[in-house]
Amino acid sequence: MPHLTSRTAAGASTGVRTGLGVPGYAHPLLAPAEWGELARPGTPVHWAVLDVAHGPGTRPDPHCMAAAARLRDAGVRLLGHVDLTYGAREFGEVISDAQRYLDWYRADGFLLDRCPSDRVPLPEIRRTVTTLRALRDELHIVLGHGTHPCPEYAEIADQLVTFSGSWSDYRWSQTAEWTADHPPERFCHLVHGVPRCHLDEALRIARWQGAASLWFTDRTDRAGRADPWKGMPGYWDEIVSRVGTGVSE
């Protein structure tokens, strides 16, 4: 199987514990149970993304402020969702969105979603990330490529989302050879449509491809008509248990 031979076991055996990278639930008013579960003690969450209104919105949202505070109290890293539109957004708009997340929700970093993957926009993405890091110390920056970018992107961010898509694509996916030069905590995989009966297989793929942050859900995109990330997977307790105990063999 391709995913079992594309990366050496040594590249995945650094002792880093697998955890959840939550790509963004629905608004806390629409998904109160989901947001509540993230703050439950012992839940293995590396980070959770807050997307208020396709970004931070135009004014502070008290419900999102309360949800952010609960996560902060629980020690969960909160990332603001900033859409790069594959490099088409103006630099000033991106920085303005980020500043509002910091001012209103005290974000710990950002998911720069729909990040370009080729070399041409790399200098502008580097400029953006450098400017964001100057806004506050120790921000966690995740680049949401959704595929393997050129390797230079790994030099400017804390993590790269190198897969975002369906289980039917993920189960036969292969990782880029250059990722073996980096530890698993540098990579994240987001996979929708994973049946419960294939959860163990999905965890093995993530392990062998060297991704320490992951999000698997049985929700689907309904042929592009729905957002599969907006709610918890039907096997939430099971995946929390397996990820939290490192069961991915």
Task: List the topology elements.
Blueprint: H1 2-5, E1 19-22, H2 32-38, E2 45-50, H3 62-73, E3 78-83, H4 91-105, E4 109-113, H5 122-135, E5 140-144, E6 159-166, H6 167-170, E7 187-192, H7 199-209, E8 213-217, H8 236-244
Q: Would you give an account of this structure?
A:
The protein is of the alpha/beta class. Helices cover about 30% and strands about 20% of the residues. The chain is built from eight helices and eight strands. It has helices at about 1-5, 30-40, 60-75, 90-105, 120-135, 165-170, 200-210, 235-245; strands at about 20, 45-50, 80-85, 110-115, 140-145, 160-165, 185-190, 215. It has an eight-stranded parallel β-barrel with strand order 1-2-3-4-5-6-7-8, surrounded by four helices. Helix 7 links the parallel strand 7 and strand 8. The longest helix has 15 residues, at about 90-105. It is globular, with a radius of gyration of 17 Å. The relative contact order is 0.17.
